[in-house]
Request: fold
Amino acid sequence: MVDAAAQAVIEEERPAAPMRTETFRQTRPDIVGPDAPELPFPIVLSGTVQHGFGRGGKDLGCPTANLPDDSITPMSSVTKTGVYYGYAQISPERDGQIMLPEKDRGVMPMVMSLGWNPFYKNERMTAEIHLMHDFDADFYGHEMNALVLGYIRPELDYTSRESLVEDIETDKQVALKSLSRPAYEKFKSDLIFDTTQSKL
Ligand code: ADP
Ligand code: MG
Reply:
């Protein structure tokens, strides 16, 4: 725990996210990052999918699989909060049993939000991953492996639900387009993934 004075310093160092503006919306590029991933990418993240606050995700049409705190240390080389893109795969197994249907076992394109965790008074980061795939059921308790390949945009503050949903939709399109470049697409068969699980 930190005392109130230290907490005030922390909060000062981490100002609230800037407001999302109309100019930002109109000038968003549809493809981001260099033609091939550049250091510190690719960054590998692995962990068991945790329950989050149950807040937002599914209501916004964008469920996010939350990673445990100790699994996001590899992101500390970046620390830039905001939205990232890459690939992720869910392990089919839970408690020694195969739980995922074959169609849900592939390596999926993803968008990841990296932010400060209000639950821990913003002293810790959270990483939440939305996989661009329609899963048959929830997969809490399953292992997730992810490869973060690039950065899309900073974390922003929203005055309306519509503009947030709109930006999330744009993030997904930008991620798909950015990942379709050959130097990114090849990471789909990276050794961290189990490509014997599915032909996807
Ligand atoms: P929570 O706050 O518990 O993370 P969410 O509303 O963000 O709740 O939902 C996340 C859960 O939804 C994941 O842990 C996972 O089990 C499930 N889920 C279903 N489809 C997806 C998907 N395409 N991407 C991420 N999670 C998904
Ligand atoms: Mg979530």
